[in-house]
Amino acid sequence: MNRWATRVITTWVVACVVSMGGAWAQDLPEQLTAIKPYTFGQSREPLSVVADMVKAALASAEESQKLAAQLAALLGTDATLDCKQFVCRQLAIIGGPGNVPAIVPLLANAETVDMARYALQPIPGAEVDQALIAALAASADKARVGIINTLGDRRSESAVDAIAPAMTGDDAMAAEAALAALGRIGGAEAVKQLVAAKAAVADDLKMAWCDAYLLCADRFLKEGNTGEAAAIYEEMFAPEQAQRVRVAAFQGLVDARGPKGIDLVIEVLGGGDAVLQGVATGVVRRMPGTEKTKEFAKQLPKMSPEGQVRLISALADRGDKVALPAVEKAAKSEDAEVRAAAMAAMARVGDASSVVFLANAAVEAGGRDREAIRRSLYNLTGEDVDQQIIAKLGSGKPEVRAELIRSTAERNMTEAVDELLKAAGDRDEGVRVAAFKALGVLAGPEYLDALVKELVGAEGDATRKEAEEAVVAVGRNIADENARAGAVLAALGETHDVTARCSLLRVVAGLGDSNGLEALRAAAKDADAVVKDAGIRGLAQWPTIEALDDLDALAKTADDEAHKVLALRGYVRLLALPSDRSGAESVVKYADVLGMATRAEEKKAVLAGLASVKEPGVLGLVAPYYEDEALQAEAVAAGLVVAKAVCGACPDEAKSAAAKIMELTADEEAKKQAQAILDLVGRFGGFITAWEVSGPYAQEGKEAGQLFDTAFPPEDPNAKVAWTIMPVDLNPDTPWLIGLDKAMGGNNVVAYLRTAIVSPAAQDALLELGSDDGVKVWLNGQVVHGANASRGCSPATDKVNVKLEQGDNALMLKVTQGGADWAACARICAPDGKDLAGVKSVVR
Amino acid sequence: MSTRDGRSVGHSGISRRQFIRRITAAVAGTVGFPYMVPASALGLNDSVAPSNRTTIGCIGVGGMGSSNMNSFLAFREVHIVAVCDVDRSHREAAQATVNQRYGDEACAGYTDFRELLARDDLDAVSIAVPDHWHAIPAIRAAKRGLDIYAEKPLALTIEQGRAMTEAVRRYGVVWQTGSWQRSQEHFRHACELVRSGRVGRIHTVEVGLPTGSGCGVEPEMPVPDGFDYDFWLGPAPEAPYTEKRCHWNFRWILDYSGGQLTDWAAHHCDIANWAMGTEHTGPVEIEGRGEFPREGLWNAATHYKFEARYAKGASPVAPDGFTMIVSNAFHMGAKFYGEDGWIQVWRGGLITEPAGIKNSIIGPSDVRLYDSRNHHKNFLDCRKTRAKTITPIEVAHRSISIAHLGNIAMQLERRVKWDPENECFINDPEADRMRSRAMRGSWHL
User: How do residues A192-232 score in pLDDT, each as one tens digit?
Assistant: First the structure.
């Protein structure tokens, strides 16, 4: 700071009225003196205390003034810069004109000028403006620029004359800031100064000058002074101005001219400037009025294809139907892009008369153009559009009718269902197929009988296939899963035609209504080979595990080899569906089916299914196939997936599987993954990795902290709880981390983890824990630790002394999750932190 | 209350059927949302003529910035000519990616975005910088006449957002905000269901956002080699370097952002606004509580819940007004409670009560919303038609204003009243002070 500057500012301060705060400032409360030595890197708690005081003081004008004066007084002390910055930012909230004298000295110091501005900028009143203007005269470089910025942000009209000279001074940064500030301040005086400085402004700041000038025009316009605004816009719209300046001026001028602004828009649309045309189409979008739409539409033929595309898009956005004739004409343009744009725009400007036009156009067009035209037909608005579509469904070219039928589904025209049912029996297959497709979407369950009737009488394979799918789709809309197949089963009882019966059986399988399962079972034993085949295929397609035993039996006893294979495949598919089976039970069933499979294809399917069972028993099951050339790939893949998943819970089994894969496979990628598993197990480092997990659990409206003491089923020894093996973290640096966010995820939830700590003797031990967020711990049914926290996970954040019993010790953790990361880690060791010999964790 | 024929009637005295007819008719009768000209009309299907190319410079190429850059690189019509980042490692990695894509060494690298903006070969910029840096480069790019794809949340303060909005309007540039959920079909469908009155009049909207985290007291550290820390701070207050201040973690510090609240409000409050048709207005009253860490470096709210009340008529689907409740205590996403059920949407899905509503088809007589299937492509297409993008700047400004208003109310620990038309608080000079912040040193809007 230069000496002159200090003198000027000091003089100003002395000249200021001393506020009543002076008395309060004599006696600083201890909370304020406590923050004086604060520097970054220290505890922020003392600052938080003061911030709380500020918030509390806001409730009372007197308290606010008192505290603000005390805070301001700190600025004149030997408090640290970090403290003063904090104080200034509190004064930005609570400070008033009376505090200005205490803040002003900071303006004169390069280290404190910014913090002074933080405080002063929001404080209302002429005192602040005067102080800043006084400081401006005495400051230099960045400090000067900052003060100009603050005066600009305050829209300080009294500062215009003080700021103006900087526009043409040597300091380029100050000149730019001054231009921007005058633009923000606006008003006649700012305009006068800008005009006066125009010629002298440096060349590289001409754009900044234009921006400031335009800002002033915008302000005039906003305040209703359209004359002054228009004068500036007209000047800036002159052809010699930079294009982006003309763009801004053009928009302003259109608005300033009011209703007459359209003339300028029309002029620009008809002109040759593509950039201005583009902006004009933006204006077209926001100028309301049908007459204007007509005027805009008239310009289309005068424009380049590129311009037409833009204007058509804008006309579409206006959504005014009077543009339809012009858009229809453009839809026949020689230019493909114009045609496509016009077709698309018809969705918004078209009406009932466009229905057939668009349907015909969709038939004639190809590829993506067809999709765009169809989209227009689907989106076409207008009261009579749907009626027109229905009226045209019954006659005309089949291709066009098929297009119209498609549109009924996309347009959600449920009132078209009766007509569609008629079309479902049409002579043309394309029409029939389209009709069934639409019926599948639109028909309600009340149409199921009629649809089944159409299905029974359907002609041709393609029609039959669509009809079957339509009945399934409509049937599935019945909420009660076991009330879906009534109509189909009734028809099955009355129909003797084999083809129709087979169709109905396929539909029964697709509906998955338990009442239909018996029909499939009966059909699977039918004397007619075709019906029997349909019955068995239906069972093989059955969507729920109800058919598991049927398929098991068929896979073992069916006469036909193909049926055995179908049943086996179906069985394997159903095995992978969620069920109440335990992992171990699944392993037994997979082992059984693996024994039944004779062909490589089915064995592959079984091996692939085994990869979804995260049980150590799988490793033994797939191991024999590591050497089978035909099945090695699936076996190795399953072995690796399962070994990875269980390596925390069963490290020995996982290591053994990985070593065997390393030895037997030539696949480099598989070897790499096997090695990664070996490496992972080697890095467990005494942490507990054998975990089962249950969750996530949540309760509506409760946050993580509130869930900490909310008991979920795992806390009830009598509750039935689903536990699954917890996979280890695959990050080689932290394989012991229990990554709950990856395993299940969620916000404001909890999960439970359990394991058995096996100790060779009763002994004292130390449980080291880390958790993100909180953790509660039970050992042998007793709560031994709780930390209801919101924190990150680091090993040994919590240390808990525990007593282990000889044999199994049941350990359970409850880990809460607020948001973001969710993890935990635990290690059991001797009370002195050393390894505990002979103690291990296992999943029981 | 019911009418003589038994139909239920709400406070505004109109039946549900009348209500739905009214909202759908209102949409059909006005200048609607921008209608997209298909790609085939824009020369995007075949080889790209030089005149159809979009030349882009990328400002900020860290996490989101490089993600956006890679998205743009996938378009044949785009040519990225320059990247800018204050962190040399980010900058050089981005340059290498661009050069590898084009098989040359032509991609220029800058530390100072002003140098990038000074190039005369740019059509557009992609901006993905910390929130405290959103306004300045965006306004400067608009002044250069460049179209802008920029990351959410729109701005650090309400005033900065308004200044950005005005600059974009003034210079007629096309703007896309990175609130990409709008270009996801299921989010649009959910909003269309709400807007089409499938659950009747809406009375409450719950917006669920993530819980924040605190961190410890952090020590001052040496600035890493290649990182222009002073430029990174830019308009934010002077502060010593420490690792947990910068890059991804800027979000948790109020000098640079607004925490999980602003980071995610720009997605889920945005969807709530879209569904409610309140994209050009705001609440009139805001009140709530937040937990701001008292200790450590990070100071943005970790737990929060505030209510933003909207006036009668603000939303076409809430004639009696509605309350938007924003909190980390809810399931992530937006949930709309109406007189006939609810609709809940989040990144992972869409569920409704009654369940069948989810699958109902939105026909032409319903409210169909702007259909974008690819957020970056939507920007490129709109560059050509000069139509508004699916997330124009005014809309983004209004979405993030909800979060700013929530933060202000929670920091003041009292109810505040807001005038959404003039964007100022009502008789509340203390709250008004928090609409803007002074910028450090020579930086200004």
Answer: 999 999 999 999 999 999 999 999 999 999 999 999 999 99
- Residues A468-484: tens digit of each pLDDT: 999 999 999 898 989 99
State the fold for domain B16-181. Rossmann fold (3.40.50)
Pick B438's closest partner by Cβ from A121, A309, A319.
A121
Q: Are B233 and B239 in contact (CB under 8 A)?
A: yes
A253, pLDDT greater than 80: yes
Q: Can you give the pLDDT at residue A2? A: 38
Residues 243-302 of B with CB under 8 A from A: 260, 294-296, 299, 302
pTM equals 0.78
Instruction: List phi, psi (to 5°) of B417.
Output: -110, 140
Q: How confident is the model at residue B42 (pLDDT cuts 50, 70, 90)?
A: very low
The class level of CATH for B184-366+393-433 reads alpha beta
Interface of A with B in 425-444 (CB under 8 A): 441
Contacts with B, A 89-148, CB within 8 Å: 89, 92-94, 114-115, 117-118, 121-122, 124, 142, 145-146
Banded model confidence at residue B379, pLDDT cuts 50, 70, 90: very high
- pLDDT, tens only, A554-574: 988 888 888 988 888 899 999
Report chain A's mean pLDDT, rounded to a whole number: 91
Cβ–Cβ of B328/A819 closer than 8 Å? Answer: yes
| Token pair for A236 | 């800036």
pLDDT at A7: 42
Half-sphere exposure of A469 (CA within 13 A, CB side): 14
Residue A786: strand pairing partners: A776
Q: Which of B46, B170, B360 to mutate to test the interface with A (most CBs of A within 10 A)?
A: B170
Q: Using CB atoms, which residue from B208, B362, B413 is nearest to A55?
A: B413
| CB-based contact, A6 to chain B, within 8 Å | no
Distance of CA A213 to CAs A158, A198, B445, Å? Answer: 18, 10, 15
- Cβ separation of B37 and A441 shorter than 8 Å? no
Q: Which two structure tokens, joined as six digits, stand for A568?
A: 């086996």
User: Nearest 5°: CA angle at B415, between B409 and B417?
Assistant: 90
**Residue numbers in B near A378 (CB within 8 A):** 364
Q: At what angle do helices A274-286 and A243-256 cross, to 10 degrees?
A: 30
Distance CA A199, CA A196 (A): 8
Q: What is the pLDDT of residue B113?
A: 98
Residue spans of alpha helices (H) in B131-184: 135-143, 158-170
CA dist A664 and A675 (Å) reads: 13
Residue contact B363–A412, C-beta within 8 A: yes
Query: Is the CB of A790 less than 8 angstroms away from the CB of B302?
Result: yes
Interface predicted TM-score (ipTM) of this complex, two decimals: 0.89
Sorted by where each begins, the domain ranges of chain B are 16-181, 184-366+393-433
